[in-house]
Give the backbone structure.
Amino acid sequence: MSQPKQIEKVTKPDHILSYFKLELWPLLLVTVSGIFYNVGMIAGPYFEGRLAQCLFDIMNGYQTFSAMISLAVTYLAVILAVQLMRCIKRFYVRRFANDTSRNMRHMLYNSLVNMSQEELKQESLGAIMTKAVTDVDACVEGMRKFTTEIFDTGVVLASYLAMLFVYDWRLALLSGIFTPIAYFIAGQLKIRITQYNMEYKKSAGRLNSSTMDRISNSITYRVYGCEPNRDSAYETHLADYEKRAVSANLWGSAMQPIYNIISMCGAVLIIYSGSKNVLGTGWANWNIAAFTTFLSCFTKMALKSSKAANLFNAVQKAQVSWVRIKPLMKEYVEQNTDSAIDFSKPGGLTVSGLSLGWPGGPKILKGLSFSAGPGQILGVSGPVASGKSALGKALIGEVPYEGSIRVGERELSTLSGYERSRLISYMGHQPDLVSDSIEENIRLGEHGSIAPYLQAVCFGKEVSQMPQGAATSVGSGGIKLSGGQQARTALARTLYNAQHILILDDPFSAVDRGTEQKIFENLRTLAADKIVILISHRLYLFPTLDKVLFLDGGRGVFSTHDDLMEKNPTYAELYHAQMEGEMQNEE
Amino acid sequence: MKNKNSLGSVLRKIISSSKWMTLTTVIIIAGAIATALLPPLVLERIVNRLTAHQPIPLYLALIYFGLLALSGLLESGQNVMITVFGQKVTHGLRSEMCAKLQRLPAAYFARHEAGKTTSRFVNDVDVVDSLFTNGIISMFADACKVLSILAVIFYKSLGLGILMLWVTPLLFVMTRLFQKRILKAQLANRAAVGNVNNHVPETIRTIRMIRTLFRQKYMEQKYDDYIEESYHATDKSNLYDSIYSPIVIFISSCVIAVMMICAALGGQVQQFFGVTVGTAVAIIAYVNKVFDPLESIGMEIQNIQSAVAGVKRINEFLNEPEREKTDESVTGKGPIPNTKPCICFDHVSFCYDKENTVLNDLCFKVESDEAVTLVGRTGAGKSTIFRLLLGLYCPNEGRVLVDGVEASKIPDTRKRKLFGYVEQSFHSVSGTMAEQISLFDPAISQKQVEDAARLVGLHESILALPEGYNTPVEKAIFSQGQFQLLSIARAVAASPEILLLDEITASLDSDTERRILDALERACEGRTVLSISHRLHVNTRNYRIIEIGSKCL
């Protein structure tokens, strides 16, 4: 691994100017070399005109051969210098784009990774992907073109225009009136181009989500024989995308030659009146050099100005993308890790008068009170949708609550994200693995041996039998591991990073009973000084737990297993039903 | 056989299916090339007249402009045609790749991350698009331009023509040198971009873990490392790209300088170069024109270069080994005597990879209408049995028979009528609640969807959602258990003959489990049921137990 590199933070990331500001050096180099190069661009037509004139003079005996030599050498030297400048300009404009793309992605990711589950639910997966990848690319490409064209169009046009005026101002004015017309039309078409682009982007977003859906659910569609009709739905998206891409590109790229033709109308005037100048009957007195230089200068200018429309297009495209990225660009979030809490000191968990429910929804649980001290294991159970998982999520701050949850000396809602993560560990239904090795999935950047934790979750032997051991890649989302292996990796990760309070929501659902028993015993030893909250619908471990919280009908009964068996008929019935099932099947 | 699926043959298919468009494109490009040659010839006449002190008639100026305009228009047409063509190709290619998905074995999806395969469809195909629009076709047009201009130069000035014959190959060698370097950098970049792209959906998926373990910084650093890799690769290829075109332009200036010097020498040499002042002006215009397309070829090479990596991967994708063809004649409607076992594992051995045998010489039979529970330790291969039954994998030895037919030969379209498969966890598809059940199957009516929902007791819960059955799945706040019920509704919607329940009770409490079993009880009438459980559960039906992991039962 290379040394970790810190990418700069962008202040005011939702202002496009901030990104330009960060790149002062490359932009300065671009400016200097860009001005030199573009002013130098007129050297080409100028010297080529002089060369033709010189040839004419030599043929007519006005000049000697050496004049041609020195002219040719000067010509080459100037071109070399100009091209060198061009080289610098090209490279640094690209460096600028590269830097900016990096900065934007960095900021975009920072705001993404610091979003909460709820915020993320509001953006669909496919849309975020398009946003993050395509938009940054298009936006940066627009910024690069804009920067390039400022010089390639702005400066060049100014210097060409100046040159034309020096040769014959009347002719320059006359022939030049066509260029603004081309600009005007380009400006008019701008709105249309933006609109087509917007539709194109939207269609691309739809196509991307449908691609993602088709691929990630392939097996599901296959076992239900639904692949053919998904393919035809995909085909509809493709057709729509093709149509919109063609119209967007049509307006974007095909108009340029038309602008060029409009600008080139001036050439008729130049040839007609310019030839009069050479023959001595026009507004100015010209030689052949002046004639060819003027014509070729004008041609290049017309071409440049036709590309000015490109500038509009690029800026347009960038704007469309930028508008979409902008709301995602938030000030760099640095998670606050200051805390007055002494994390080395274990504290108890005291919950009293707790009510919770999703924002805007009805209360799921009401009037819960329970507590646990270090070394205790608390079982939570209840029928489906009784709020078991919601209670677990409330303890990690995902579900808002009323009443009080005291962790050690502090109220849960007053804890920062950092403090919460140092006090409470959580494992949910999803293994939430990242595409990396088993080892890295457990450590997540920390250092330390993972062996005891693999042993604890009964995974050590299996891992050591894999060809690459703990370095085995788990694949995206753990796809290369079986469900049980994924769950055990996730459990090992949770134990490796365990804090004082450990919330395990159905951690054994993907392992068999014998393994579950073993893991549970290991858990007892590993978490001897911790509070473990075991959320499960399986009750057979519950007799060995210190306390049990039984949720039913929005209420909770906090007691011990034995007590509940005696006093709570629902609990007793559930327990018996489960145990009977076991007996029957074990016969 | 191997070529059948290559990108090349797919492209040929697409091109040959749109002959008229291809022809129009070729004609327009040829016209654009030819008309681009003419204006300098008019210019030559104008300058020659001027050196002879003759006035220029207006019609000559108009012809000059007219030719410019015509060439501009044709060029415009060329752009349009190339875009249309490129889009046709990408559309066709994506369709072809989508069709390939159906033919891929299930193992492919287990081995390849969905994000990366999506990237083949999205990014790599886009690259192939640019390969056409800004690469091959325009490069072909530019190459024709170069050749035609060279021909005119030869005609006008033999000496310069010969000089150009020396310079052009030299430039080509240089270009190749740049190409190779750039390709290397591009490949590195594309690999890094793949990681960058995969990291975003992964973050969204695991955000809860990231927050509870406070690994925001860690994930960010990972992302930054990926971007950094891509950054360095891009920077490198940018460097080569920046040097290339200035070098070309400088060489073109050298050619002009040499030509002018030779023309100025007079006598024999001038004869050889055959240059008058008018010709000199025209030829300068031509030399600039030669190097313009050469320069764009440089850019197009860059596009093609970056496309090569994408093309390679699309080719790899299209060449992936395919699963065995199913037997379309299998209708499952044939007369099957009730005495025949419905499912039969006949000495089946199976392994996913060569090292670990999952099933070894497994034999069991399940009669029609029988209910069976498969038990065994984790990793004994219970889920594998389902995968074999569903025809997702083929056994290495032995046979898996369903209604007397080999499971892998059963066509996909038959499967929904045959199997209802409830997976360990619910896989939501992007669509409405009704579509979660129907899976967009037009053969399943709204009534069937609602019946299935009623059967699992979800009908009321779905109706209570803001848009009822039309609520997008992301907007439905359902519990784990409810989603599990939804996946059962999905399985029974088409009234299949056989129900496969994988770990069905894994994430459900006894209460829901009972609700499901009650529901299944009704659904199981006249059906064969296979269920997997690590845990054994209460059931009202007479379940036979098959233990997996021990030999032939």
Q: What stands out?
A: The radius of gyration of chain B is 34 Å. DSSP finds 17 helices and nine strands in chain B.
